[in-house]
Amino acid sequence: TLEQDLTDKNILITAGPTIENIDPVRYITNRSSGKMGYSIARKAIERGANVTLISGKTSLDIPNGVSEFIQVESAKQMYEAVVDNLDKNDIIIKSAAVADYKPKNISDIKIKKSDDDLIIELDRNKDILKEIGKIKKDKILVGFAAETNDLIQNAKKKIEKKNLDFIVANDLTQEGAGFGVDTNIVKIIDKNGNIQEYPKMKKYELSNVILDRVKMLSK
Ligand code: PMT
């Protein structure tokens, strides 16, 4: 059993993929299963925190003991849910895989196929973390980075652009890291540029590592 060392903490966690509709039957999404975010939520609850979990569509069970569970689909809905729940949380952990783009027009009716190619125009979605980073004040903001190349360089850029306290960078090229699996292989980089490398570990073990860091920062 874990020590209840986060009892005075209010933690907002985002998890899972977002989906962006093309028409009533089709959408654009990504490979996030929600396992990383849900496992952080479970550990935070076990350690006594009040957890708000904002989740895209996953096949996972809602963690027992969650203070608030908010189901969303699109990046826009996730953005609105995060903003609505910002005031009551001191710690924000963004493990969701958010779509950067959405179809410019969502068709009300199923798009019929023709002999021509189909071009779907995409608009930029808001960067949720970046927006929160602008207004976070003394809240602790933790991001993730899912990269296939130049992991550290890209992750460092994200810390700066999004005003993060630290970032958890998964190297998607390694087996047992990132989407779908029960393990992860990460480097954690803080806003001063210090890098700590971790071996392959279960997502629930990594969750404790992340929460330990958050706890250290939030004294
Ligand atoms: O869900 P699992 O299957 O367990 O997989 C876990 C995971 C690989 C999804 C997770 O560990 C992870 O890396 N999540 C972030 C994936 C991602 O979208 O990374 P990114 O590099 O595109 O985004 C960087 C950060 O900005 C993320 O914290 C993301 O939540 C945030 N972001 C991105 C785009 C956007 N429009 N708004 C955001 O807030």
Automatic annotation (TrEMBL):
Positions of the UniProt region annotated as Phosphopantothenate--cysteine ligase: 11-219
Keywords: Decarboxylase, Flavoprotein, FMN, Ligase, Lyase, Magnesium, Metal-binding, Multifunctional enzyme
Pathway: Cofactor biosynthesis; coenzyme A biosynthesis; CoA from (R)-pantothenate: step 3/5; Cofactor biosynthesis; coenzyme A biosynthesis; CoA from (R)-pantothenate: step 2/5
Residues the entry annotates as binding CTP: 100, 110, 144, 158, 162
MF annotations from Gene Ontology: phosphopantothenate--cysteine ligase activity; phosphopantothenoylcysteine decarboxylase activity
Residue ranges constituting the DNA/pantothenate metabolism flavoprotein C-terminal domain according to the UniProt record: 6-215
Domain of life from the UniProt record: Bacteria
Reactions catalysed, as given in the entry: (R)-4'-phosphopantothenate + L-cysteine + CTP = N-[(R)-4-phosphopantothenoyl]-L-cysteine + CMP + diphosphate + H(+); N-[(R)-4-phosphopantothenoyl]-L-cysteine + H(+) = (R)-4'-phosphopantetheine + CO2
Cofactor binding note of this UniProt entry: Binds 1 FMN per subunit.
EC number(s) from the headed UniProt entry: 4.1.1.36, 6.3.2.5
Cofactor(s) required, per the database record: FMN; Mg(2+)
Stated role: Catalyzes two steps in the biosynthesis of coenzyme A. In the first step cysteine is conjugated to 4'-phosphopantothenate to form 4-phosphopantothenoylcysteine, in the latter compound is decarboxylated to form 4'-phosphopantotheine.
Family the entry assigns: In the N-terminal section; belongs to the HFCD (homo-oligomeric flavin containing Cys decarboxylase) superfamily. In the C-terminal section; belongs to the PPC synthetase family.
Record's protein name: Coenzyme A biosynthesis bifunctional protein CoaBC
